[in-house]
């Protein structure tokens, strides 16, 4: 059994206008990126996985449970979702209360919740600011708070909706490290993201959404080799790959390090 | 050609209320009409604060303590009503959600809202709205509620609303953070075209490849101070740039690893420059 099974999923907000038009896939333990043009249905898809929306047709099984038959509260024990806009998630006036809310809500005792929350705040680098009001933080820090809140829940499945918004170089590195850390802990990480180079450096599997359907799905290098298909989905290849192609280098190089190594060994 | 100074900032200092450190620390610079200026710097460097100071939200909305002057198109922005400044300088917020009025029921009306105070003839208003909605790929969503848009669609709407007003200066605070790769490229192209037509552009951004390719000059901020303000090639060739928490474009990093510089001692910063150099070697 895969962690998540999606079968013939259809969804529309307004009758007659399908946002997701027949998606079937399995998500297992490989860190997976979902990419695609604005409005492709990525956020809608993860809200469905989380049970916040219910399929208009088809089924989603999370850890074997059909999301149609289980409450959002029940599913929350298995899956955490970091929202695209942190304002949709943050509502407490003290940072530590904000981060502890999720873990307490899914039944962790006070002590465990506190320990997990502090550990999560350590990971995002905000442990020394636990008494601050999240509303006074900058957008980049608020995004990190919303990430910590989900990490503290210690769920088997963690979904990030555009985690790198507003992050500088160090912030992005921090998020890469968190994703690798979660992978090593045996968790399934799914991330929606528009940064193609970040994807190239961080994820093993890439799923391309296009107009409510899956256009490509496979290993990162494999998916990124489809330049023209990516273009039809408003995407691009990572910058390094674009340069390698322009130079007619036959090897599909994804990252700065790969390029440098290739060059030095040629 | 006569170059007019459109923005003059002198000894700008600013501290948010309740804060004990300067968010902007003695900043001075001049920008000419039609320039495309990139602002870079790590999280917390002061990019958004500077953007807000250019439209007068700092200090008039945030309060706090303020020193120095910001002149835009001859207007002293700190001493002018924010609404008056807004017709000359438009700001696209870092979080598009904060830009949506919340009082309009459709995307179309949302864009119209900003134009209503400009006293434009109805035909001109319609023409501008249709134009920006097409430009940003939102025409098919014109009757939709702004809050029912996807994140990227909402960011496109925030940009559209400001471009429609055609102010002399547009300030954009990480305007493409939620856009798909091609959408992001399109916004840079649109904005560059506007600057070629004489509009002045100031844009805070973490996408260094784009800043390198599109901006005329780059401002490097750190800890509220202006560290450098020069052509992108020079700024990205600084040996100490990573100390400011800024990473150089991918192309620059590759060339740096391989020790490839141009005859002036600068690293390539765009794909075309890197290609040209590497092609000769390969
Ligand atoms: N509303 C506020 N109240 C108090 N301090 C603030 C406020 N907004 C920003 N600051 C502080 O001012 C400094 C500059 O912040 P600013 O948001 O301008 O940085 P930035 O360069 O835009 O960062 P980012 O890349 O995260 O957007 C930071 O130390 C920040 O914590
Ligand atoms: N609450 C809603 N009501 C009606 N339509 C909606 C709603 N939320 C989203 N949509 C529409 O559904 C489509 C898919 O939206 P979704 O937010 O899933 O896109 P996305 O792939 O996450 O895009 P982005 O990259 O811009 O975040 C869009 O065309 C959007 O306008
Ligand atoms: Mg989305
Ligand atoms: Mg900012």
Structural account:
The complex is a heterodimer of chains A (266) and B (282). Chain A has 266 residues and is an alpha/beta fold. Among the domains of chain A are: 1-78 and 157-162 and 188-235, P-loop containing nucleotide triphosphate hydrolases (Rossmann fold, 3-Layer(aba) Sandwich); 237-266, no CATH class. Chain A contains 11 helices and 10 strands. In chain A, a hairpin with a 2-residue loop joins strand 9 (205-210) and strand 10. The N and C termini of chain A lie far apart (44 Å). Chain B has 282 residues and is of the alpha/beta class. Chain B contains 11 helices and 10 strands. In chain B, the strands form 2 sheets. In chain B, strands 6-7-8-3-9-10 form a 6-stranded mixed sheet, sandwiched between helices. Chain B has a 4-stranded antiparallel sheet with strand order 2-1-4-5, with helices on one face. In chain B, a hairpin with a 2-residue loop joins strand 9 (217-222) and strand 10. The mean pLDDT of chain B is 95. The A-B interface holds A 13, 36-39, 43, 84-85, 87, 138-141, 162, 165-171, 194, 196-197, 231, 234-236, 239-240, 242-243, 246-247, 249, 256, 259-260, 263-264, 266 and B 41-44, 48, 94-95, 97, 137, 148-153, 156, 174, 177-185, 206, 209, 245-247, 249-251, 253-254, 257-258, 271, 274-275, 278-279, 282. One adenosine-5'-triphosphate sits between chains A (13, 19, 36, 38-44, 84) and B (148-153, 178).
Keyphrases for this structure?
heterodimer, A: 266 residues, alpha/beta, Rossmann fold, six-stranded mixed sheet, four-stranded antiparallel sheet, 11 helices, 39% helix, 23% strand, globular, B: 282 residues, 37% helix, binds adenosine-5'-triphosphate, binds magnesium ion
């Amino acid at each position: 059994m895969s962690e998540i099974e999606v079968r013939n999923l259809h969804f529309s907000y307004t009758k007659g206008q399908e946002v997701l038009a027949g998606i079937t896939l399995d998500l297992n333990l490989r860190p997976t990126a979902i990419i695609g043009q604005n409005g492709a249905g990525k956020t809608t898809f993860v809200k469905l996985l989380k049970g916040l929306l219910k399929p208009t047709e088809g089924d989603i099984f999370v850890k074997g449970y059909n999301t149609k038959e289980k409450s959002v509260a029940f599913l929350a024990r298995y899956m955490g979702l970091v929202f695209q806009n942190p304002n949709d998630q943050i509502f407490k006036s003290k940072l530590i209360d904000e981060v502890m809310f999720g873990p307490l809500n899914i039944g962790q005792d006070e002590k465990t919740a506190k320990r997990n929350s502090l550990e999560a705040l350590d990971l995002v680098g905000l442990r020394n600011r636990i008494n601050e009001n999240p509303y006074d933080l900058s957008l980049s820090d608020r995004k990190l708070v919303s990430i910590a809140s989900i990490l503290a829940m210690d769920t088997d499945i963690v979904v990030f909706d555009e985690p790198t918004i507003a992050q500088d170089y160090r912030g992005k590195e921090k998020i890469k490290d968190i994703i690798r850390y979660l992978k090593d802990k045996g968790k399934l990480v799914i991330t929606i993201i528009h940064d193609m180079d970040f994807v190239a450096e961080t994820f093993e599997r890439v799923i391309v959404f296009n107009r409510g359907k899956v256009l490509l799905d496979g290993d990162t290098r494999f998916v990124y080799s489809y330049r023209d298909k990516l273009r039809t989905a408003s995407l691009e290849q990572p910058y390094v790959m674009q340069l390698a192609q322009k130079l007619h280098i036959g090897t599909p190089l994804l990252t700065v390090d790969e390029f440098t190594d290739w060059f030095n060994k040629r | 050609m006569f170059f007019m100074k459109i923005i003059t900032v002198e000894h700008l200092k600013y501290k948010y209320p309740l804060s004990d450190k300067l968010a902007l620390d003695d900043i001075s610079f001049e920008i000419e009409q039609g320039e495309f200026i990139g602002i870079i710097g790590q999280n917390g460097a002061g990019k958004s604060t500077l953007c807000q100071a250019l439209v007068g939200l700092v200090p008039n909305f945030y309060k706090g303590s303020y020193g120095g002057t910001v002149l835009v198109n001859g207007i002293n922005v700190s001493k002018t009503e924010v609404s008056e400044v807004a017709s000359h300088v438009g700001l696209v917020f870092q979080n598009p959600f904060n830009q949506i009025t919340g009082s309009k029921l459709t995307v179309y009306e949302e864009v119209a809202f900003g134009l209503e105070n400009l006293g434009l003839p109805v035909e001109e208003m319609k023409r501008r709205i249709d134009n920006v909605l097409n430009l940003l790929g939102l025409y098919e969503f014109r009757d939709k509620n702004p809050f029912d848009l996807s994140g990227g669609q909402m960011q496109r709407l925030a940009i559209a609303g400001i471009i429609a007003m055609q102010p002399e200066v547009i300030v954009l605070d990480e305007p493409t953070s939620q856009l798909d790769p091609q959408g992001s490229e399109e916004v840079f192209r649109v904005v560059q075209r506007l600057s070629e037509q004489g509009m002045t552009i100031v844009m805070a951004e973490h996408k260094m490849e784009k800043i390198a390719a599109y901006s005329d000059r780059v401002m490097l901020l750190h800890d509220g101070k202006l560290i450098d303000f020069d052509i992108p090639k020079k700024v990205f060739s600084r040996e100490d740039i990573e100390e400011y928490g800024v990473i150089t474009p991918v192309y620059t990093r590759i060339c740096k690893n391989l020790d490839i510089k141009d005859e002036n001692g600068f690293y390539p910063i765009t794909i075309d420059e890197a290609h040209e150099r590497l092609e000769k070697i390969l």
